[in-house]
Design brief:
Two copies of one chain form a homodimer. By secondary structure, chain A is of the alpha+beta class. Chain A has two domains: 2-230, 2-Layer Sandwich (Cytochrome Bc1 Complex, Chain A, domain 1); 255-444, Metalloenzyme, LuxS/M16 peptidase-like (Cytochrome Bc1 Complex, Chain A, domain 1, 2-Layer Sandwich). Chain A has helices at 64-72, 81-87, 111-122, 129-148, 150-162, 176-180, 184-194, 208-212, 218-230, 282-298, 303-310, 340-353, 361-378, 382-394, 399-407, 415-418, 435-444; strands spanning 2-5, 10-16, 22-27, 34-40, 48-49, 58-59, 91-96, 101-107, 200-206, 255-260, 266-273, 319-324, 329-336, 426-433. In chain A, strands 1-2-3-9-4-8-7 form a seven-stranded mixed beta sheet, sandwiched between helices. The interface between A and B is medium-sized, with 35 and 35 residues.
Chain lengths: 445, 445
C-alpha cells in the first residue's frame, strides 16, 4: 500500500509480510545514502506485561529492554554484529527509549547485505548466563557514568518528583540494583514476547535503484525481505498485553534537591501533563500547542527572556522541552543559574500565569509557522524521518496527517492545554555544587 | 500471519494485501456453510471528518453511511446485487451501525463466485441524483417505521437525554430532514474517503477445502482476493481523520417523556459512561464489569428482581443493556410497567447504591463465569464471531485476548466502574399511552 502526502512531497510504502513483520519504505530518489532501521515496539515503558504463553502480569526488572538490545549484538559464534556491519562499510548503532528498541545502520553500498545481517542478528537470540554476567558489568559502568552527568541527574530528579509509578521516572537503562536481577531466562521471556515479527518494523529510507544496484520497485524489496523471513522459524503470533500504570494528575512532590561536583547550580521546573489516552493525532497536536505557549513565553525573542537575563536569573540560556508519549508527559524548563531558587520561583509564577495567558493572533501564527517549519526541516534527516514516523505511529498519530492538521491549529485551540498550568502539576529540582566543587571553584577564581 | 488462541480453540489468519485491504480468515474445519463479511470502518459515529483530498472538517448529513450502504446494492446496469447473490443460492444482507458498514452473505456453494460479486458491487460505486431521490423515499419510509416502534422511541428518547452531541443520540439512519439533504456528490465524498481498501476488511469463516472445492490453504485465499483486486484501480491511500465530539461526563437532561399509541407504559433508566479513550482491551473489560454489577443487582435470580415483581413495578421482565464504543457508552435498564415513575425511582435508587455495593467473592465468580461462558457460546455463530472480532479490533481490543484477560478479572476490579453511579450521570425516559390508545384499551377490557 502506498500512502501519499503531497503537502510534504513524501510517499510511504507500507506492507505487512505474512509473518506479521511491517515493512516500510520511504523513497528518496537520487540519494546515494540509505538508512535502515529495524525496531521492536518494546521500550522501557513496557515493564509490566503478560509474557507470551502465560496468563499473569510480570514486573520485569527495570532496564531489561535496553539490556536485551546490548545482548543481541553478541552473536552465537561470539562475533559482534556491529563489527561485521563496519566491515561492510556500514555505520551501525542501536538505542532503546521508552517506546521502542531500534537497530540501525547508514551507508551507500552493501545495503542488502547489511539488511540481511541486521535481520539475522536481531532475529537470532542467544542468551547465556556468562554473557549476561559480562553485560551486567558493562551496563553498570554505563549507568554510573549517566548518574555522574549533571544533566541526567537533573532530568531524573525532576521525573522522580513528578511521577508516582510511570516509567518515565526511571532511566531507560534501569538501576544498578535492577540490572543485577536480570537473568538469561528473563531475556528469553522478553524476547519471545516483544520480538515477534508482528511487533517489529523495518524502515528503509533511500533510493531503491541504488540499494538494488539496478532498477527496482517496492515489490522487489518486499520479495527480498519475505524470502529472508522464510529461512527463519517463528512461533505463532500472540497479542501483547502491557499494563501502563495510570498516574494521578498531580505531582508526587513539588521539590527536591541534591549536590554534585559542579561549579554552577542547575535548576529545572517541570509541569506534569495529565494522564489520558488521546485520540488519533492528538498527542502530537498537544505537544505543538505546548511548544507554542513556551516559545511565546520563554523564547529568546521575548521580553520575559530579557528580564531573566537582566535579573541574572539565567546566564547563557534556557532549555525548554515538551514530551508526550501518548498517555502522559511533561514540560521541562531548565538552566544553569547562580540563583536557582529565584529562577524556579520566576519560572513557576510565569507558568501559572499561562492559564490566563492571551496570545495575539499574529504572534501565534508566527510561532506556529516557525515550529512547523523547524519540524519539517528536521525531516530532511533520514533518521529523524524514519524514527519519527514510527514513534508517531506507536502514539496513535500519523506524522504527516498530524502535521497537516497542525496547520489548521487555531489560537482558540491553545486553551485546551492552558488548563494544565496549575500549582499541583508543578515541581522543581535543583542541583547545588557540593563542598568539594565549591572549594575547587574558589581556588580557580 | 496466524494468531492462535488455544484457550478458545480458535485461529485467526490475517493478511493485509498490497492495496491495504485487510483479509481475515477464521477456519471452521468440517463445516459446509461459510460466512463472508465485507466491512468498511465507516459508521454513523463518523459524521464529522476531513474528506479525502481536502483540508477542513465536513459535517455530513446524519444517516449518510447507512444511505450509502443502501445505494451500493444498485449496480451500474440497474441490477440489484442482493438478487444476484440470491440467484447464486447465497443469503445476503447488509447493515450499518455506529462503527462500521457491513455487507455479508451465507451459503454452502458458490462462495468464491459470491465473494467476487460482493467485492465487485461494493467496489463499484455508482451514484446518480435519480437513484438518490428514489432512495430518499425508501429510507424515509424505513425511518417512519422505526419512529413508530415504541422500543426504538424509548431508546432514542433516552439517548437524547443522555448525550449533548455524541452520535449515539441519533438513529443510524439519520432523520427525515437530514436524508433529504443527501446528494450524489456527498455519497461520492464519503465513498472516496471511507471505502479506500486500507479502511476495509474481508472476513471469511468456514472450511477452505469446501470453499475452494479442493484442498486449499490461506495463501490460496490471499491469492484469489489479490488477483481480483488487481483488476480494480484505487487511488492512493490517505489517513482518515474523524472528529468524535467529546462529551461531558454528565447527562444533558435527567428526564423526558412522550406519548405513543401503546397500551402499557414503557420506562427506561440510563447511566452515561464518562468519555475516555481506553487502553487496549479496556473497553471490553469495562463492559464486562458493568454487566456483572447489573446481573448481580437486576438479574432474575436476585432478591431485587423478586421485589420488583412483588411491588408490581415490572410485569413480564426487565431488559438490561451495556454498550461501550471505546470512547463512551451507556447502561440501559428498561421495562414495560404500569407504574413507570415508581419503576424509574426504584431503579435509580438501586443504581445510585451501586457506588457502595459490596459483592461477595463467590457470587462475583459465578456471574463472571456465566457471562464469559455466554459470550464464548455466542461465538459459535459465525456472524457473531466475525462481526465481533472486527468491532473489538475497531475498539482497540482483541476479542480473544480480552476474553483471556477477563478470566483474571477480580472482585476489586469492580470498584473502577462503581464510581460511575452518580446522580449527574443518570437519566430516564417514559412513554405513556396516548389518549386514543387508552380508549382502545378501555374498550378491549
Amino acid at each position: 500500500m502506498i500512502k501519499e502526502y503531497p503537502f510534504f512531497d513524501e510517499q510511504i510504502y507500507q506492507q505487512q509480510l505474512t509473518n506479521g513483520l511491517q515493512l516500510i519504505f520511504i523513497p528518496k530518489n537520487g540519494f546515494k545514502r540509505s538508512f535502515v532501521f529495524f525496531a521492536s515496539h518494546y521500550g522501557a515503558a513496557m515493564n509490566r506485561f503478560i509474557p507470551k504463553g502465560e496468563k499473569a502480569y510480570w514486573d520485569a526488572p527495570l532496564g531489561i529492554a535496553h539490556f536485551l538490545e546490548h545482548q543481541l549484538f553478541t552473536m552465537p559464534d561470539g562475533q559482534d554484529a556491529s563489527e561485521l556491519l563496519a566491515k561492510l562499510g556500514l555505520d551501525s548503532n542501536a538505542f532503546t527509549n521508552y517506546s521502542l528498541t531500534g537497530y540501525l545502520f547508514n551507508g551507500s553500498d552493501n545495503i542488502l547485505k547489511g539488511l540481511t545481517l541486521l535481520l539475522d542478528f536481531v532475529q537470532t537470540p542467544h542468551f547465556t548466563e556468562k554473557n549476561v554476567l559480562k553485560e551486567q558489568g558493562i551496563i553498570a559502568q554505563e549507568l554510573k557514568m549517566f548518574l555522574d552527568r549533571p544533566g541526567d541527574a537533573l532530568h531524573y530528579g525532576l521525573m522522580q518528583n513528578m511521577f508516582f509509578e510511570y516509567p518515565l521516572k526511571h532511566d531507560v537503562g534501569g538501576t544498578l540494583a535492577s540490572i543485577k536481577d536480570i537473568t538469561a531466562a528473563h531475556l528469553r521471556t522478553c524476547y519471545r514476547t516483544f520480538y515477534q515479527p508482528a511487533n517489529m518494523t523495518i524502515i528503509i529510507v533511500g533510493d531503491l535503484n541504488n540499494i538494488f544496484k539496478q532498477e527496482a520497485s517496492f515489490s522487489d524489496l518486499v520479495d527480498f525481505v519475505s524470502e529472508h523471513q522464510k529461512t527463519k522459524k517463528f512461533g505463532k503470533t500472540t497479542e501483547i498485553i502491557v499494563d501502563y500504570p495510570q498516574e494521578p494528575d498531580f505531582v508526587r512532590t513539588n521539590y527536591d534537591e541534591k549536590t554534585m561536583e559542579i561549579t554552577v547550580p542547575r535548576a529545572a521546573v517541570g509541569l506534569k501533563i495529565p494522564f489520558a489516552n488521546l485520540d488519533f493525532n492528538q498527542s502530537m497536536l498537544l505537544e505543538l500547542r505546548l511548544k507554542i505557549l513556551l516559545e511565546a513565553n520563554f523564547g529568546t525573542s521575548t521580553d520575559v527572556y530579557q528580564e531573566m537575563l537582566d535579573q541574572a536569573l539565567i546566564q547563557s540560556g534556557i532549555a525548554t522541552e515538551v514530551y508526550h508519549d501518548g498517555k502522559t508527559g511533561y514540560v521541562k524548563i531548565s538552566a544553569n543559574t547562580e540563583q536557582p531558587q529565584a529562577f524556579v520561583k520566576f519560572v513557576q509564577e510565569r507558568l501559572l500565569s499561562l492559564s490566563q495567558f492571551q496570545l495575539d493572533l499574529l504572534t501565534f501564527e508566527r510561532f506556529k509557522k516557525a515550529l512547523i517549519g523547524n519540524f519539517i526541516r528536521a525531516l530532511n534527516s533520514f533518521e529523524f524521518l524514519a524514527v519519527g514516523y514510527l514513534e508517531y505511529q506507536y502514539r496513535n498519530s500519523n506524522l504527516f496527517a498530524a502535521l497537516q492538521m497542525s496547520e489548521d491549529l487555531t489560537l482558540e485551540d491553545l486553551s485546551s492545554v492552558q488548563k494544565y498550568f496549575t500549582e499541583d502539576k508543578l515541581t522543581s529540582f535543583i542541583i547545588f555544587p557540593n563542598q568539594s566543587s565549591l572549594s575547587k571553584k574558589a581556588s580557580l577564581e
